[in-house]
Amino acid sequence: MADHTRAARLAQRIKVILAEALQKTIKDDRIDNVTLTEARVTNDLQQATVYYTVFGDEEAVASAHRAMEENRGLLRREMGRGLNIRLVPTLELIRDTVPESAAQLEEVLREAKARDAEIAAQRDSATYAGDEDPYKE
Fold first, then answer.
1. Rounded to an integer, what distance in angstroms lies between the CA atom of residue 12 and that of residue 119?
2. Is 96 in contact with 38 (CB distance < 8 Å)?
3. Per residue in 87-127, pLDDT tens?
4. At what angle do helices 72-82 and 58-70 cross, to 10 degrees?
5. CA–CA distances in Å: residue 62 to residues 43, 57, 76, 96, 123
6. Strands of 90-95's sheet in order across
7. CB-based contact 114:120 (threshold 8 Å)
8. How do residues 8-32 score in pLDDT, each as one tens digit?
9. Residue 37 contacts by C-beta under 8 Å, 6 or more apart in sequence?
């Protein structure tokens, strides 16, 4: 029987262990701007997926991604040392693109708000083409 709460607790523990490993164990300058955003574990505790973001330009993002992939085994070893479970889950590292998507969405909303304000200003300064009430008696 799958235990959802145990998988959630294990995911949070994995996130903490890997964040500490990124700070203390791995001596790579390319991962200085890496932030772990979320960890998920399957209900059978066999697969751990960790999402991370990188602060910087595209070159920094690409080099951080390479560094994370190169150090995947070291991260899994640290994860195994910090967990008290029989089988250490396999580790999958995925770059989280939510902050970039959120920034794009914020820009679109900002543009829509500016267009709405422009239309409202045009509406306030609009005049009738003929009389105000064309159906005068």
1. 48
2. yes
3. 889 999 998 887 778 888 899 999 999 999 999 888 888 87
4. 60
5. 31, 9, 21, 13, 48
6. 34-41, 47-54, 90-95
7. no
8. 899 999 999 999 988 888 888 888 8
9. 51, 52, 53, 96, 98
How many angstroms separate the CA atoms of 128 and 132, rounded? 6
Contacts of 6 (CB under 8 A, 6+ apart): 45
Q: Are the C-beta atoms of 95 and 60 separated by less than 8 Å?
A: no
Note the pTM of the prediction, 2 decimals.
0.71
Query: Which residue, 82, 85, 78, 80, is CA-closest to 3?
Result: 85
| The token pair that represents 30 in the structure block | 């390319």
Q: Give CA–CA dist 41/31, Å, rounded.
A: 23
What SS3 string covers the chain?
CCCHHHHHHHHHHHHHHHHHHHHHCCCCHHHCCEEEEEEEECCCCCEEEEEEEECCCHHHHHHHHHHHHHCHHHHHHHHHHHCCCCCCCEEEEEECCHHHHHHHHHHHHHHHHHHHHHHHHHHHCCCCCCCCCCCCC
